[in-house]
Design a protein that fits this description.
Blueprint lengths: L5 E14 L15 E11 L4 E11 L9 E12 L5 E5 L2 E4 L3 H23 L13 H12 L1
Antiparallel strand pairs: 1-4, 2-3, 3-4, 5-6
Helix pairs in contact: 1-2
Length: about 150
């Protein structure tokens, strides 16, 4: 019988936020053209059974592609039991991580939803106060992670 994996969120922590006032849209209708780029980084602490996942989000306007109008990152620190479930290869201090598909989907969907909520608070009071991360973004993020594993 396969052992059930237990996951508990220990912390959700903002890591970085920057808004480039010079690159912000000047008209509300320009906000419809914003596109989003994501990056995610995973770190493991095998002695404490912790997985830290950091999600970076950058918002861009097509007319100013080289300057993110908003950069935001936050991290989730998760306690995972058994943490060895995530190891695909261990050599000394080097650990290759492979998240099981269902676990990756749950973690990334939850992180994306948190990013949507956390970022909306940061954008309050700006021209982007009605901007929310795209509805289907979690699915796209999960697809990209799977393609790179």
């Amino acid at each position: 019988m396969e052992k059930k994996i237990k996951i508990r969120v220990l912390s959700i922590r903002e890591e970085y936020f920057d808004i480039c006032s010079d690159a912000l849209p000047t008209q509300k209708d320009e906000c419809n053209n914003i596109y989003t780029m994501f990056a995610i980084n995973f770190e493991i602490d095998k002695e404490r059974s912790l997985l830290k996942a950091t999600l970076w989000t950058n918002l861009f306007l097509p007319s100013k592609e080289d300057i993110p109008i908003v950069s935001y990152s936050f991290s989730y620190t998760l306690h995972i039991d058994p943490i060895q479930t995530l190891f695909s290869k261990v050599e000394g201090n080097q650990i290759d991580i492979k998240l099981p598909t269902d676990m990756a989907s749950v973690i990334l969907t939850d992180m994306y939803a948190a990013a949507r909520a956390l970022l909306s608070v940061k954008l309050s009071g700006t021209i982007l106060n009605d901007y929310y991360l795209p509805f289907d973004g979690a699915a796209q993020l999960i697809e990209n992670i799977r393609a790179n594993q």
